[in-house]
Amino acid sequence: MDSAVDKISARARNRMRDLSSNVYLDDLNACWRAGGFVPVPNPERRSGGQRKALFDSYADGVDWSDREQVQRALGVFEAMLRHCRPDEPSPSWDATLTKISLEFAHDGYEISTSLQISGKGDWRPEHAREDETAYKEALRLLRGARNQMDAAS
Question: Which of 9, 29, 37, 60 is least surrounded by Cβ atoms within 10 Å, i.e. has the fewest?
């Protein structure tokens, strides 16, 4: 791990940072906001585009040694994985998910077929996580409201 107290290693976080390139900016922002996070100013500009910079602005504000914050961040990562999962089988996606899963396994986490991230041996009922359909519907409604407000301006 990155340090003795980090519950998710820098390597696993970097895998998710790389994945952020495949998530639309609005969706990425919504994933972090749904987890209760706010972006923090980042004076150190790292390589990557807007999506990675947005990811960094949120991830840099997470205390990776705090169990509660890590649990919320895992929810963010699960949402990102759901956004990236293709509708049809894809060898490229399978390879990406395998790499991410291996990094999380080093930290004691496993990723289920439904893309839930939990501690090895932990059990969480499926209904305890956000339903993907409800999440997408909420995003659709929010975008519609935003577009109406923009049109009214």
Answer: 60
